[in-house]
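Comment thread on ticket #2218

A.B. wrote:
> Attaching the input chain for the structure job we discussed in standup.
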Amino acid sequence: MAFYQFSVEQHVAADLEQVWGFISSPSNLKKITPKEMGFNITSKDDNVKMYPGMIITYKVSPLLGIRMNWMTEITQVKEMDYFIDEQRVGPYKMWHHQHKLIPDNKGVKMVDLITYIPPFGFIGAIANTLIIENKLKEIFDYRTIAVNQEFNIVAS
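C.D. wrote:
> Ran it. Output below, let me know if you need it in another format.
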């Protein structure tokens, strides 16, 4: 069984409290997800401050407009530092996403590390090479732009 990792970094010229407040709020997930994914939070407490054990449910269309349910659990939160979400129900055999914030003298570096196992064994490995890696890149490219817009950062 093969697992994969996808990592991305983004610098945000804002203070740690602002970035943490935005990125750790489930209600902002829709703002940073490409519109073509049809992302909608279906759980009731998306406006509640994130906490360990929080379950967030979504409807999403990651591929070919096929709607699916996705459920993640916030398994760890260290305020102003990082949080981890893990898939409980969804398209992957395993999904572990660490969101880390590192303050520096220019603002905050956001570091995401996703460790995942695609479904369907060997077929999933092929799908990872042909589709999943590219889709993750597209999603995080969109997120970079959306976060920059949220903090009025002009791309250089």
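A.B. wrote:
> Thanks. Noting for the ticket: The longest helix spans residues 121-150.
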